[in-house]
Amino acid sequence: MSEKTTSKINYGDILRRYAFVIAAAVLFVLIQMPVFKNWWKIWMEGESYYSHGPLVPLIALFMAWTNKPKLAKVKPSGSYWGLVLLLLSIPVYCVALLMELRFLYGVSFLVMTFGISLMMVGWKPTLILAIPILFLITMMPIMSWLLDKWTLHLQIISAGLSTKFLQWTATPDAYQSGSYIHSPAFPNGTLLVGVPCSGLKLLISLITFSWFFIYIIKGTTVRKTILFLFSLPLSIFINALRITMIGYAGIWSGSQKVMTAFHDWSGYLSLIICFFILFGVAKLMGMRDFKSWEVDPADAAEKNWNTIVGKTPTGYCALIVLLIILCLAPLLKPIYNFPKGKLPRESIPYEIGTWKSSESEIGEKTRAILGMGDLLSLFYRSDDYPINPVSVFLDASYDISAFHDPHYCLPGNGTPITEDKHIVIEVSKPRPMKIHATKLTLSADYLDYLVIYFYTMGDETYPTTDQMATRNRQNKKEDLVRLVTNPACVPQLRKDVLKRQFMWYRFSTGMVDETAEDTLIQFIKDYIEHSPYFGIPVNL
Fold this sequence. Notes:
By secondary structure, the protein is α+β, with helices and mostly antiparallel strands. The protein folds into three domains: 11-141 and 298-331, no CATH class; 145-284, no CATH class; 345-529, no CATH class. It contains 20 helices and twelve strands. The chain has helices at residues 11-17, 19-31, 33-43, 56-65, 68-72, 81-99, 102-121, 123-128, 130-135, 144-169, 200-216, 221-229, 231-253, 256-284, 313-328, 364-369, 406-412, 465-485, 490-497, 516-529, and strands at 175-177, 180-182, 190-192, 351-352, 355-359, 374-382, 390-397, 417-427, 433-442, 449-457, 460-462, 502-510.
């Protein structure tokens, strides 16, 4: 019987062998720090789709570690093709920082990563590590407007499936209206399938886990592909089941608080259920074993990595290029480094005929969420309409994150929308204009409410948050074309973007009688006609 011996890990030797690779990694992290800060902010947002983001680099490192047997058999050697990728990544990186474009953040990150890998270890190791590197895509936030469109579709699908489940099992008279499920069995008669319940967050998390799972499990490419594609219907089904269970919680308890409490923690339960189902499906498909990442001690090929990795002309070149990029980065101040919004307070009519205003307090939570906006809440009363005051909420910002869509926030606070209509309000002063606005009717416990809101940028008006955001994206596309075709335009571009402040006007009143809508529309006309700077850009 031979005696088994173990060797201690020599960390000093590891640092010596990989000193060039570690130096390149440190420079890369420093270069990408503005990108990481942007991503971190998104990862840490409440109800973020990317709350799993901080775990992704660790998972990617583990995925790379599982390739030790393959890597041990190839010899690291740099390739100048990596220099081509590094040089290509520089303009993409510069434009990404100047424009703060998430898509370009991701492109520059990946191109630079592959470039460094090629210059440090060459083609064969880079190809072996390609999937773990590409896995980093799962931590990169994509365009929010694209997520919003997917969210809406998934909301409708999830609400439809949940309605069917509830009809079959608990309340036959349940019916769907958009993203709402109505039933007299619910405490408030309505269950809103809001953005957090759309299932998109579950889908993104499940895709991330499925990618990792099929990478480390043994199986054919066909079986792995089937298992990965299974994630989409699975996430929709489990999310619909979760919404159904929230409905059950309300039906069985008769309490809205119980429904809310179950909603808050059931998301974690849904993810765990999905994981167990994926494991079960993998076993049924005959995939029971995982990859081995142990290197055979008898494999002499491991000596390929006993040299100082990256100590090559391409390795030195990579470090020089990275140092140049690091020195360049502080000069790239974002064009959209906006100041806080500025309300034209001298244009606000605090008295309109018999209407007199008083300022209302804005909650700390609202101020925190809409932090980049200059906010004002006014409450108007008139002796001519003593029982029907008007509330006016104003928000000015260059950054559209300072606005929130009433279609989400109002129902989320328990006030269902019963009517949603586009209207046009014509005014003659301070100049002839057509105001395109959205009219919402809200159903509250004791009184229905009417809300009319719109956005402006200069003399342009937008009836919905989505249309305002679309205009903002159009501005950025035009800026991108200007920047690419004429990089010297950056100073002028910085001035131009400060002429694009958006204003949000929201007027609301109680539906105390049938004249409420006419009264509110007339109030809006009077308000605008008494605002001498309405529709004029604010210049800082």
